[in-house]
């Protein structure tokens, strides 16, 4: 049985929903590796180094959680970490369809890499990084949706003066 879980994502920015999944994984597995994706093809607000830094600050209270950057195929990265499982959060049916496709594709390419799904807590089912970025870019208050250090980072990017 895997003792380590990998929770991959862009985390641009890390939301309270992401935090919730990490906390729940940390209570289930001996070690959790939060793997921040660098080469995603997405136009990110924060560069890879800053996303790793923010996630590390947000999750600093969890002794069995480590935040690392990675590039390339997730299944290769996961296989390089040894005996582990991937953890993916699900908010809605759309997430489920997409995540099952990814899990099956990863399993096809690397059969030893298993994926488990964590249903989002009800209070975070609506939350996504893209929505947080949009609200912040339009001078909206996202302080309920992100950790204070992430909120400050977003304020500095969007220069809202709050």
What does this structure look like?
With 162 residues, the chain is of the alpha/beta class. The chain has one domain (4-128): HUPs (Rossmann fold), CATH 3.40.50.620. 42% of the residues lie in helices and 20% in strands. A 5-stranded parallel beta sheet has the order 3-2-1-4-5, with helices on both faces. The longest helix is centred in the middle third of the chain and has 17 residues, at 93-109. It is globular. It starts with a strand and ends with a helix.
Describe the secondary structure blueprint for this structure.
Blueprint: E1 4-9, H1 16-28, E2 31-37, H2 48-58, E3 65-70, H3 74-80, E4 84-90, H4 93-109, E5 114-119, H5 129-137, H6 148-158
Parallel strand pairs: 1-2, 1-4, 2-3, 4-5
Derived structural class: alpha/beta
Largest sheet: 5 strands, parallel
Number of domains: 1
H-E string: EHEHEHEHEHH
Which fold name corresponds to the CATH topology? Rossmann fold
If you compute it from the alpha carbons, what radius of gyration comes out, rounded to the nearest whole angstrom?
A: 15 Å
CATH architecture: 3-Layer(aba) Sandwich
Average pLDDT, rounded to a whole number, is 91
Helix fraction, binned, reads: 40-55%
First-to-last CA distance? 48 Å
**CATH homologous superfamily grouping:** HUPs
Identify the CATH class: Alpha Beta
For the secondary structure, the number of strands is 5
Gross morphology = globular
Uncertain parts: none
